[in-house]
Write a structure and sequence with these properties.
Elements (H helix, E strand, L loop, with lengths): L1 H24 L6 H18 L6 H25 L2
Helix pairs in contact: 1-2, 2-3
Length: 82
């Protein structure tokens, strides 16, 4: 059950990251920060759902996804001045 929830969360995260990439690629940057935040929240939801279980690889992947989201946020702030 925990892993099924993470699959759903990761589908949301991948979708948000793909849209963020498209936003970055189009040089509009309007939704980049929000989309990165959506992806980060999906990773956090997965992590919260796995609390108390021993899936260290999944924990590592959640952390890596959050770092990618933080990079997107920095890029967004750089280009938008926000």
């Amino acid at each position: 059950m925990h892993l099924q929830k993470c699959v759903s969360d990761y589908k949301k995260a991948v979708s948000a990251i793909e849209m963020a990439y498209n936003d970055l690629n189009s040089e509009t940057f309007f939704e980049l920060a929000d989309l990165a935040g959506d992806a980060c929240h999906a990773a956090e939801d997965c992590q919260a759902n796995m609390k108390g279980t021993h899936h260290s690889l999944l924990h590592f992947m959640n952390d890596a996804l959050k770092v990618l989201c933080e990079i997107c946020l920095v890029i967004s702030k750089f280009f938008t001045g926000s």
